[in-house]
Amino acid sequence: MLTQLKGGRVIDPAHNRDAVGDVYLENGRIVDAPEGREPDEVHNVSGKIVMAGAIDVHSHIAGTNVTLGRQLMPELPLMASAEGQPILPSSAAWGSYATGIRYAEMGYTTVIEPAMIPTHAIQAHKEMASIPIIDVAGLVILGNDDYTLNLLRTGNVKSDELKDYVAWTLMHSKALGLKVINAGGSEAFKFNARTFDLDEQVPEYGVTSRGIVEAMQQAIADLGVPHPPHVHTNNLGIAGNVDTAVATLEATQAHPIHLAHIQFYGYGKEGDKGFSSGAPRLMEAINKNKKATVDVGQVMFGQTVTISGDVLRQFTARAANPKKWVINQADGNGTGIVPYNYKKKSFVNALQWAIGLEIFLLAEDPWRVLFSTDHPNGALFVRYPEIFHLLMDKNERLRWFDRLPEASRQVSGLAGISRELTLSELAIITRAAPAKVLGLTDRGHLAPGAIADVAVYTDQKNKTKMFSAADLVFKSGKLVVRNGNVVDVSWGRCYHVDPGFDRQIENRVRSFYETYYGADPSWFGVTPTVSDRPDRFATIPCAS
Amino acid sequence: MDSTLQRAADLLAQARFPVFGGLFTDVNGAAAALALAQKLGGVVDHAASEGMSRAARVMRETGSTPASFGEVRNRADTIVLIGDSPRARDPELLEKLFPAKALPRPGDNARELVVVGAKKGKTPAGLRTTEIDGKTALPELVASLGAAIRELPFEIRDAALAKKILSTGKRLRESAFAVFVYDPAEIEEPVLHTVLEAVRHLVKTTRAATLSLAAPGNGEGVNLCSTWTCGLPVRTSFAGETPENNMWAFETERLLKSGEADALVWIDALDGADAAPPTRAFRGISSVVLSSKPVKAGRDDVVVEVGAAVADHDAAVYLPPIAGIGEVKATSADASKPTVADVLNKIGTLIDAKRAA
Fold first, then answer.
1. CA of B98: which chain A residue's CA is closest?
2. Is the torsion defined by CA of A97, B245, A116, B311 positive or negative?
3. Domain annotation for chain A: domains and CATH numbers
4. Which terminus of chain B has fewer Cβ atoms in its 10 Å neighbourhood, N or C?
5. pLDDT, tens only, A491-502
6. What CA–CA distances, in Å, run from A170 to A373, A509, A529?
7. Would you say the C-alpha torsion A351, A352, A353, A356 has a positive or negative sign?
8. Which of residues 289-318 of B touch A (CB under 8 A)?
9. Pairing of strands B263-268, A302-308
10. Confidence band of B242 (pLDDT split at 50, 70, 90)
């Protein structure tokens, strides 16, 4: 069936397009304007904005850690809505089904789960398969597991075997890419470390955090995996940690790297309270390291629960609100679940909010500074439209800013920034750039051949309203949302890489798990039958 | 088979408030049960949910401090075994927790076992073991140990026992990684709180954690599946507009006794584990039974023979060694028997057709 979206303002920054025109969809793809054929279906979208479906590069939507968060905080949706904040799709609970529905209503069609635990990949995939409409992919965590650390043991580095191990892990967990969370820090926590810096050594193994990240960059580059290592660096959330972020950016220039939720590293320690905005310095370093991309991890005020494989950081930040926390000391990274309420009246929270916005607005190249809230850590994903509003409307920003504590306003440069993101720039940070960074070349844009994931919005001054409910959303060519409501519950696909490896690694890994865990690695190998839909998985090719 | 499933669909389509109990099934079976319960406005519960519900309630109130099985066996220097159930549930538990070869672990203490409130049992040869028992009840022993850990006073009349508790408290403070192992089905909620408080005290300076024994019958797998599907664990009702979890109200046994539930879907289809049916099962309540074992059901009940997960078909179930859901290949695949998921999904389709007609 040929579908025409007629006369909308088409915003496709990947092809420098921002003009009124038509978009045609057929057989799940965008197609050229057909000659001599009448469309079977015409949607008159004149006066509307037409963009590719949005892509979330970093959102914790599935897997052991998220479900542990659900177990600790089933009341999250109710608490999050207590102060008139937008709520999750279901006011009663935050299950998988509700996640897909709400993402689709906002015009999102692809979401990346950034923290799959290798041994729990089956649960992550079963959860992802129960999220309707959106396409998904998972990033698998390595870097605090004893197998990796043993390969990087000082004086006995086995980088070829590491490359095979990374490839095997990506294949075995059906992951799109690699995640590294506080490299070596979780292992150090197992030896009772309470802080862990870039150049500190992992107890017993000798390798440093820097050494782990560099080795992973090399392995991913050698394997030709399109998405660079997705790194959550050391010292998250600590005053003065902009030094760590800048040092990491300087240390990792040999190969591409993606630094996650960089707002949480944008902290200086100037001023009376020892906490200040490090955003200008951070952005200078990001603007300079052209091989680095980042996502922001914007904070919004309200109740949430933080979920992280950075167990060391979560442990030191366990002063939870409400007062309950989970520290899960598990194989590899482990997890910390810490409920948190970002308060407008808090000096620190207000500054975090402002730092995130500064980072977006100081970015020279929006292609390298991607949108995220690190859902649910900075804010629930349902808050995205409010953040778009803040980025696109300086008066709205000032309205919020003026209500912040005096002390926070005094040390923030936000009020002096007059930049307003254009629709094209928004489309870059929420569509085109995530697709490029992830290696998902068939989306994030509207050229013929692209997957027919399209979102249509009513242009209005109130961007919160505009992006809360898409007029129309097409997923793979099928109309799934009309007037902000899901009209057809379809099921998406899951993308992964399969770079290939020397088969010897399988025996080595089997022997390791049998010896130390009494476990057979086949137990946690993800097969296509993890979902009951036959075409669930699609492989993204690697360069080598 | 088709007529059996049609009878099951007819029975359930008429039900006002069905309860899906037992749920000794794999994750796919649980997902199908959840979907059907949602469709019918029923309840999901698991035959071993008493301990899980208790642990869940404590966690919701104050959090939790779990360690994975792998971390405990590789890195714990002191393991505190509470109660009889852990060893009764897995006679080889201690051999697994004290393996000959392990990953690098913190500290240089020799590994040690402390047994609290349990009958004398086998312990691995050569392992230093302290037994804290006597005639004192388990809650009091744990409370005293908790006090000793925090260097607070406690009263135990047996002087030798009191001394042992004191020295164990000291050993735990000096441990590099102390882990308390228990079965939440065996110990009461206040005891769980005491253990958690002790761990939270210890971690201020050193490392400590808990290892809660997984419920039988893939309890954790089913519970996790319920949690990710609807945001809430088992003992959840889908009768209202939004799902509602209530650990007292939505227990199978109570729902059958009180007459609130008017139909039972009983699922018992896991290799190597038998779900204990509720006392009122199959007596005066319309039941659909999915079982891999012979069942004594009522004359009007619908019984569907299904394959046993893990034996007859590959199955995703909770596996303690990886502290998560893994997939196990069938020991002797028998494709002639349908899975729980197959049967429930077909019943769901038949109910849809009936409703559409």
1. A516
2. negative
3. 54-358+368-422 (3.20.20)
4. C
5. 999 999 999 999
6. 25, 14, 17
7. positive
8. 314, 316
9. unpaired
10. confident
- Vertex B166, ends B164 and B169: CA angle to 5°? 110
| A527 interface with B at CB cutoff 8 Å | yes
Distance CA B169, CA B308 (A): 46
Backbone angles phi and psi of B298, in degrees to 5: -75, 165
Please list the residues that pair with A329 across neighbouring strands.
Answer: B67
Query: Does the beta-carbon distance from B322 to A523 stay under 8 Å?
Result: yes
Amino acid (1-letter code) at residue B179: V
Q: Is A18 on the interface with B (CB under 8 A)?
A: no
Q: Mark yes or no for CB contact B325/A328 under 8 Å.
A: no
3-state secondary structure A446-470: CCCCCECCEEEEECCCCHHHHHHCC
Question: Which structural domains are found in chain B, ordered by start?
Answer: 2-48+217-356 (3.40.50.740), 55-212 (3.40.228.10)
At A480-489, the pLDDT tens digits run: 999 999 999 9
pLDDT of residue A253: 86
Has this prediction a pTM greater than 0.80? yes
Q: Which of B345, B223, B263 is nearest to B20 (CA)?
A: B263
Strands B263-268, B286-291: pairing kind: parallel
Secondary structure of residue A4 in the 3-state scheme = strand
What is the residue-averaged pLDDT of chain A? Answer: 95
Q: Which residues of A touch B224 (CB under 8 A)?
A: 67, 123
Q: What percent of chain A is modeled with pLDDT above 70?
A: 98
Q: In the predicted model, what is the mean pLDDT of chain B?
A: 95
Cβ under 8 Å to A: B residues 246-265: none
Residue at A477: amino acid letter: G
DSSP reduced 3-state for A90: coil
Interface contact A331-B71, CB threshold 8 A = yes
Helices H / strands E in chain A, number of each: 19, 24
Phi, psi for B327 (deg, rounded to 5)? -115, 130
- Which of 318-347 (A) contact B at CB < 8 A? 320, 323-331, 334, 337
Q: Is residue A305 within 8 angstroms of chain B, CB to CB? A: no
Structure tokens at A534: 């036959």
Amino acid at B55: A
Rounded (to 5) percent helix, strand, coil in chain B: 40, 20, 40
Determine, for residues A519 and B70 on separate chains, whether the beta-carbon distance falls below 8 Å.
yes
B229 at A interface, C-beta within 8 A: yes
Task: Give the start-end residues of each E strand in B27-170.
Answer: 43-44, 63-64, 78-82, 112-116, 128-132
